[in-house]
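Before the break, one more example. Copy the sequence into your notebook; we will annotate it together after we see the structure.
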Amino acid sequence: METFEKWLRIVAPTDWTDVIVRTVKVMVIAFVALHLKEWFEAGTLDTPDILIDSVWVAGTGLVLNAILMWVKS
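Here is what the structure looks like once it is written out:
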């Protein structure tokens, strides 16, 4: 259990600015990765659907980081 608590202190965001920065970073990475996937698989881009999927991924990351910050405090 001590190892888990040590890991939690390392990966947990420190404040809301950190949570927002991590969320934006995840959204950009998801957007680019999903665009590349769509381009290689279908040969076309479906930007509106990719944007929606990226927001879902980033939203999940936002919730996870908020929970980690809450548990850490």
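The CA atoms of residues 26 and 67 lie 16 Å apart. Residues 2-72 form one domain. Try to locate both features in your own notes.
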